[in-house]
Amino acid sequence: MNKSPKQISLEKMILTELTGKPHEAATAIFADPEVQALQDYANNVSIKRLGYNDHGPVHMRIAALNSLRMLSLLDESKIILNLEKEKCGSFEDSQVAVVIASLLHDIGMTVSRDKHEFMSISLAMPIINRVLDQVYPDVINLRMIVRSMAIEGILGHMATQTIHSLEAGIVLVGDGCDMEKGRARIPQLISDKPQIGDIHRYSSTAIKKVMFSKGVERPIRIEIIMSQSVGFFQVEQVLFPKIKSSPAKPYIELYAGIEGEETLKYI
């Protein structure tokens, strides 16, 4: 498998965040050549065919890392996730579901942008099954529960379908938080003609940093720093609607602003 230095670096960062079963699940996905092929081709369709920004292996790893960092902040604040609250699993099992969903949520872009979350589920099913067979070889009930949770995470990442678990809500927000300027670098380089998706590329280019920290009033603080005001499009039209529709919304503070100026509090 041909992996970029950025992709390899992100994989190391993700694995540093994990132990036990979540570490095993992420390692299995990173070593799966089918996953790599799907992620690479998803980027081909997104960037070369449609002129959109990154929807490939780097994006999916950033989404996973974002989601895992938010899970850690929730855990630090003693927020109980759905699997544990409903006595169906542990925090570790929630991490497994979130990392799988985050790393596979956009592989449906290989087929179509329209309703690609459903395509992602279809393509992800055999991958999810073999990863969970490895991680939970002797626990059928838990394997099916974590699989359903991972599928909910994939289903909900576009905010077009109603989701109800905190785990899926974190996947939704983690995906939306991949908005730094590097995500638009490739489409900017390969095209100098106006086309569909330009506002996403230009607004993404304005985003300098997305930071996660413990909030003052809520467990998670997300702060977006941008170089110019066009970046507010990403915040207001992409990220904010995702947070509003996410079950994780009650636990998130969102701030955004131009570098050197006072940040605006959204929630």
What is the distance, rounded to the nearest whole angstrom, between the alpha carbons of the first and last residues? Answer: 42 Å
Largest beta-sheet details:
4 strands, mixed
**Shape by Cα distribution:** globular
Order of helices and strands: HHHHHHHHHHHEEHEE
Q: Order of strands in the sheet with the most strands?
A: 1-2-3-4
Radius of gyration from CA coordinates: 17 Å
Q: Give the tally of structural domains.
A: 1
Brief characterization of the structure:
With 267 residues, the chain is of the alpha+beta class.
Key words describing this protein structure:
267 residues, single chain, alpha+beta, four-stranded mixed sheet
Structure write-up:
The protein has 267 residues and is α+β, with helices and mostly antiparallel strands. The protein has one domain (5-265). 57% of the residues lie in helices and 9% in strands. It has a 4-stranded mixed beta sheet with strand order 1-2-3-4. A hairpin with a 5-residue loop joins strand 3 and strand 4 (264-265). Helix 2 crosses helix 7 and helix 6 (91-104) crosses helix 8 (140-155). The model is unreliable at 183-192 (pLDDT under 50).
Secondary structure layout plus pairing:
Elements: H1 5-17, H2 20-30, H3 33-49, H4 57-76, H5 82-85, H6 91-104, H7 116-135, H8 140-155, H9 166-176, H10 185-190, H11 198-205, E1 207-213, E2 220-226, H12 232-244, E3 252-258, E4 264-265
Parallel strand pairs: 2-3
Antiparallel strand pairs: 1-2, 3-4
Helix pairs in contact: 1-2, 1-4, 2-6, 2-7, 4-6, 4-9, 6-8, 6-9, 7-8, 8-9, 9-12
